[in-house]
Amino acid sequence: MTTIKTLTLVDDDDIFVFLTTKIIEQTNLVDLIKVFGNGLDAINFLKENKNNVDALPEIILLDLSMPIMNGWQFLEKYNKLNPTIGKKITIYICSSSISPDDITRAKTISEVSDYIIKPITKDKLIDLIKKL
């Protein structure tokens, strides 16, 4: 089965991050998990490493509700940055929001591959990685 080098979690919920990290580790499909507690730190990392494809993740799991820079704001910045990034990054919104408005809005953003309602399961993670 395909493995990926890096998966990035952008989420400020320590419990979700801890549990999701454990689930990802159990799959044995991801070499490195990077965690950012807000969108600003994540977007700054992407800007700093846009030409270093080895440092960039294959997948980003993005929460919507975070301090400093939320998921929507991250996506706005990412949309502008994306053409300069030397690697295709697959972004999944991973949120506890079940709002139809959020789900519909996410589907209008071309950089978002899917909307996943928390919690994320091991089977779902394996499916995401297989789709790459």
From TrEMBL:
Coiled coil: none annotated. Residues 6-132 form the Response regulatory domain. PROSITE patterns: RESPONSE_REGULATORY (PS50110). It holds the Pfam family Response_reg. InterPro entries: CheY-like_superfamily, Sig_transdc_resp-reg_receiver, TCS_response_regulator. Keywords: Phosphoprotein. The modification 4-aspartylphosphate is found at residue 63. This is Response regulator. It comes from Winogradskyella marincola.
